[in-house]
Structure formats: C-alpha cells, structure tokens
C-alpha cells in the first residue's frame, strides 16, 4: 500500500496508532485487492484515520458509518467493506444501526476503537464508560452503568463477535484478517488506551485484567460459554467469543443473486411502475 505524505495527529501513546497498524496488516494479509476495498470512518479520533490510509474511504456523519456501509455493500457486494468507528459512534449514536447490521448479517467488518470516552470532544462519558469514572461531563463520577458490547452482539445475532486489545498488534491484525474473511457480519470491540482523557485505564490497568479466551478452553462455537465469558467481572477476556456461518443479507436478496447491482444494465431495470406512482 502506498504511504500517505503526512503523519497521524493522534496524541503520543494513543491506541489508535496500534489499531491503524493492525488494520493495514490485517487487510493486506486478507489478500483482498485494495481497489475492491472500502473503509467507512465515523466521527471521532479514530475517524481521523481516513486521512492516513490510501484505501477508498468515506468519512461519514456521527454513528452513520454503519448504514452508509450497508448501502454500499448492497450496491456492490463484490467489495470488502470495513467500518472504523469509536465506542460513542457505534454504541451511542449508531447503536440501533449496529443491531440492524447484526440482525441482517450484513457482510461488513466493524472495528470499534473502544476507549470508553468521547475523546475527540475532550473526554465526555460514552456508553462504555465505567460507573464512577470522573470525566468532563461527570465531574462527580458517572452515574450510569456501562453497556456490555459483547453481550449486545451475542443477543442480537452477531455471527462473529470478538474483543481484542489494541497494543497487541499481531493478535489484533490476525483477528481483523479472520473477521474480513468471515462471510457475514463481524464485530471486533477493540480496547483502546486513551492516555489523555482516560489515563485510569492504562496499559498496566489492562494487563492486570486481560485473559485470553483460548487459555480458558473456550470454543467459539459454544454460545452458552460465550455468554459466561462475556458476563465475567473478575477478568476481561479477549479473543473470539462466538462465530457462526449462515447466509449474509445480500445472498438472500433475489435481485442480487446473479451479481452486484452496479454491474446490472440500467435498461434491464423496469422503473415504469415506480415512476407511475409519482405522476
Ligand atoms: Fe487518542 Fe485520546 Fe488523543 Fe484522541 S484524545 S488522539 S483517543 S489519546
């Protein structure tokens, strides 16, 4: 992949650097041609990545990277479609979109930069902020409980549900490759240190809590055990919680079975009935 002529503007120590490196390696290792790959970026520090990659990209409105990606996949399901989005955009503004992507098993890989804050806007609470955390918007400590993204994905038909830790680049890049190859929806909730607005959840904080699902004897085809691992509060498991292969959305649409919509000649599409309704 050619290099862009300028460097990222993220803060020193930001986990976005590691996710950026992992995404590039993961895409290359997946082997899909760059000209057939498109990345959708949401608003947030993670969205600045749109300027640092040479893949086709679309910087969308907040929370709307998800439905924009769906529209593109339906128009041309021959593309590899990836979403880069923060925890605020994915689980907050885009929360219902996320559930609908999972319900439809749209063949899209969603990589969430989960730093438990809205950091681009200087550190307000997000849906994943820990209860009690003092932030710019909660000077006395967050009152709400955090959501559990893995439990939400498991309960809403996610067919590839994973959590990884941003600084483990080899591990994260392999998971991204695996997610891209998964024939359906995939979510990688990526724990991302933000030393500026969430210094409490530091590298050391994570290292004390992280465990690997494969070391726990977990098998990703075991939904019951995935639930148990997702609900743990003693440790923070990373790895592939659950994977199931079933038809993707575009594979179930009659009009798309003989090829992508963009490849069809406009002359073969009968718009007369639709146009008649507008008369
Ligand atoms: Fe990274 Fe946090 Fe700085 Fe944003 S504010 S660039 S998430 S360290």
TrEMBL record:
Gene3D superfamilies: 3.40.50.970. The keyword Metal-binding applies. It comes from the Bacteria. It holds the Pfam family PFO_beta_C. The keyword Metal-binding applies. Residues 119-141 are annotated as: Disordered. GO terms for biological process: cellular respiration. Its cofactor is [4Fe-4S] cluster; Mg(2+); thiamine diphosphate. Residues 194-257 form the Pyruvate ferredoxin oxidoreductase beta subunit C-terminal domain. Residues 119-129 have a biased composition (Polar residues). Residues 42-189 form the Thiamine pyrophosphate enzyme TPP-binding domain. InterPro entries: 2-oxoacid:Fd_oxidoreductase, OFOB, PFO_beta_C, THDP-binding, TPP_enzyme_TPP-bd. Keywords: Iron, Iron-sulfur, Magnesium, Metal-binding, Oxidoreductase, Thiamine pyrophosphate. One of its GO terms (molecular function) is metal ion binding. This is 2-oxoacid ferredoxin oxidoreductase.
């Amino acid at each position: 992949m050619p290099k862009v002529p300028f460097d990222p503007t993220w803060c020193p120590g930001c986990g976005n650097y590691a996710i950026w490196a992992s995404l590039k390696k993961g895409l290359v290792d997946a082997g899909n041609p760059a000209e057939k790959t498109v990345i959708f970026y949401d608003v947030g520090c993670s969205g600045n990545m749109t300027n640092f990659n040479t893949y086709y990209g679309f910087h969308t409105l907040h929370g709307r990277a998800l439905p924009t990606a769906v529209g593109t996949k339906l128009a041309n399901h021959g593309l590899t479609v990836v979403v880069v989005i923060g925890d605020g955009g994915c689980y907050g503004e885009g929360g219902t979109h996320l559930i609908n992507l999972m319900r439809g098993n749209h063949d899209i890989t969603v990589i969430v930069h989960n730093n438990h804050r809205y950091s681009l806007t200087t550190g307000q609470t997000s849906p994943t902020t820990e209860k009690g955390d003092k932030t710019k918007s909660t000077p006395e400590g967050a009152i709400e409980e955090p959501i559990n993204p893995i439990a939400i994905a498991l309960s809403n038909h996610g067919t590839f549900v994973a959590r990884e830790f941003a600084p483990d680049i080899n591990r994260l890049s392999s998971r991204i490759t695996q997610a891209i190859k998964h024939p359906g929806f995939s979510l990688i909730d990526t724990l991302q240190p933000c030393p500026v607005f969430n210094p409490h959840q530091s590298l050391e904080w994570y290292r004390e809590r992280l465990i690997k699902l494969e070391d726990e004897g977990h098998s990703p085809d075991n939904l019951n055990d995935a639930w148990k691992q997702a609900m743990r509060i003693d440790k923070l498991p990373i790895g592939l919680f659950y994977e199931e292969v079933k038809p993707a959305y575009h594979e179930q649409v009659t009009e798309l079975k003989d090829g992508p919509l963009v490849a069809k000649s406009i002359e073969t599409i009968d718009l007369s009935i639709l146009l008649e309704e507008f008369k």
